[in-house]
Amino acid sequence: MSKQLILPGQTIGIIGGGQLGRMMAQAAKSMGFRIAVLDPTEDSPCGQVADYKIIAEYNDSIAVRKLAAISDVVTYEFENIDSERLKWLCEHAYVPQGSRVLELTQSRISEKRSIQEAGVEVAPYAVIESLEDLYREIEEIGYPSVLKTARGGYDGKGQLVIRSEKDLPDGAKLLQQGECVLEQWVDFEKEISVIIARNPDGEMSVFPVAENIHRDNILHQTIAPARISEAAKADAVEKAKKIAEYMQVVGVLAVEMFLTKEGDIFINELAPRPHNSGHYTIEACETSQFAQHIRAVCNWSLGSVDQLKPAVMVNILGEHQEKVVNNIKKYRSWNVHLYGKHEAKLKRKMGHITVLDESVEKVLSEMEESQIWEKMQEKIGGLQ
Ligand code: AMP
Q1: For this protein, what is the EC number (predicted)?
Q2: pLDDT-based confidence at residue 384 (cuts at 50, 70, 90)
Q3: Is the CB–ligand 1 distance for residue 123 below 6 Å?
Q4: Which atom of ligand 1 sits closest to the CA of residue 187?
Q5: pTM of the model
Q6: 292: three-class secondary structure by DSSP
């Protein structure tokens, strides 16, 4: 694919108008670009900061044509784009990321195969197409394990933890949605992620390894740098580089990993875009993951990813927003980001807060003391 240098004043088209698109657009606008966004909603988080809005379904061919016509370069923040549309777009617009990486990561099956082909390990798994497959493969993979739909799952949706034989029949429901993968449960010590960027010239840069704490399968907190050994960090970076190089990624790739007590690393999943666990980079690093993504797709040299201070990022879900706003005056160190979403639904990502401090422990206890993120079970008696 031809490489182009995209310069300020030109227009970057973004498929998807959510918070990732918004933060990409904010970074790009501060660099002098114009932004066009394709999203089905009138007042999307990215639409609020874009110069041009195309309001239509992602797979609307007229809308995709419009985006191609208006944009000097097209990128995406939304992963479930129909691959035929994306292929068309690649032929009719400049899409330096191409369609291949997105296609491979749209299915957990091709994603895992690519990771293995890159020479990196994933947890033992099997492709499951029927209940018979499930009964057969569980013998090999063992309990506990987790059945996941190959496509379309996120934040723990489309997943079933199988603890014993009695859970196996429940697999039928997931299998109705299509092919699945059965993964061995990894008894991890930490979940970590590596955000890596690569430009069309093949230059790569890796952000500091982050440590992620999930609640109910949704990212809750990210701590960077991760509180793990230097050897584990180096190993994580090496693995992310191997994957990005093998897949010839352009732009930002997030690599989620499990780190075991023994120091083994298994890749959980990939996201070929900026990622929630990289939001800390906005304040903590010389270049944010969003600015780096823009630099990469525009074929600039990549910026420095040096971290200025340790950081803690915490997500603001629908149930936290009001309490955050009520406490906004109290905490001067909180860098509050809200995404401009109108409805604060339960578990919906509404924003995040990043705090920089030499003492991560101090920040964590301040967040706990604020009682904003107290567990929902205590509040609503396990109704979630
Ligand atoms: P995923 O959507 O695949 O990222 O899964 C959501 C969360 O479920 C992960 O962040 C882990 O906390 C947990 N999880 C998923 N798969 C596994 C696994 N094979 N072993 C242990 N925990 C898992």
Answers
A1: 6.3.4.18
A2: very low
A3: yes
A4: 21
A5: 0.96
A6: helix
